[in-house]
Amino acid sequence: MKEYISVLIPVYNEEEKIEKTISAIKDIELIDKICVIDDGSKDNTYEIISIIDNIEVIKISKNRGKGNAMQVGLNAVISYSDIIVFLDGDLGESSEEVIKLIKPIINSEAHVSIAKFPKAKKKGGIGLVKKLAKYGVYLHTGVLLDTVISGQRAFRKEVLENIYFPTDYGIEVGTTIDILKKGYKVIEVDVLMHHNETGRNLRGFIHRGRQFIQIFKTLIRKTIS
């Protein structure tokens, strides 16, 4: 019996790529549902997604964070879905690589699959955020993963029924720790996905600074909880 597969795409101000992201996965036969959750976008994202056929669109009136948008989407599909996939809205045509995340879950190779992106084409930061996330998860679980902060993930339903989504940049780290501590198997999958890269400019360093602080706070909470 075929398992029901839903893809959830939380978005905030993704007018440039969201249509291409959706178009690239609409004809994948394994996918039964595409649900896009607009997290209070201030650009034309909602206008674009609201006229695309054969997808579900959920609009959140005010931006409340990616974790909240993920939870809203999850609440809408979890009752009838067996496998649930999360994708970012800025993947463009590379979203078609999602099939590589789905197949290991269908084949019972793991409970969770995480996309491992190719090496970035342009220089970003100096790797502090990724190292903090990677070794923070290792210290909590004894499992060494390279792609802890990747948001492109496929889950068995049972996993998502047993974890909580924080709303800040610590979401991937926090949920990864919870998943591993509960004994679920996680695998990393090489994909040819790409999305908007943060450069070495003031905006980029501010973004990575916020990530670092929120991931650090997440790790502290996990230590004392």
UniProtKB/TrEMBL annotation:
UniProt cross-references to InterPro entries, sorted A to Z: Glyco_trans_2-like, Glycosyltransferase_2, Nucleotide-diphossugar_trans
Q: Where is the Glycosyltransferase 2-like domain?
A: 6-162
User: Which keywords fit this entry according to its UniProt record?
Assistant: Transferase
This protein's superkingdom?
A: Bacteria
Question: What GO terms are given for molecular function?
Answer: transferase activity
What is this protein identified as?
Answer: Glycosyl transferase family 2
Q: Which organism is it from?
A: Serpentinicella alkaliphila
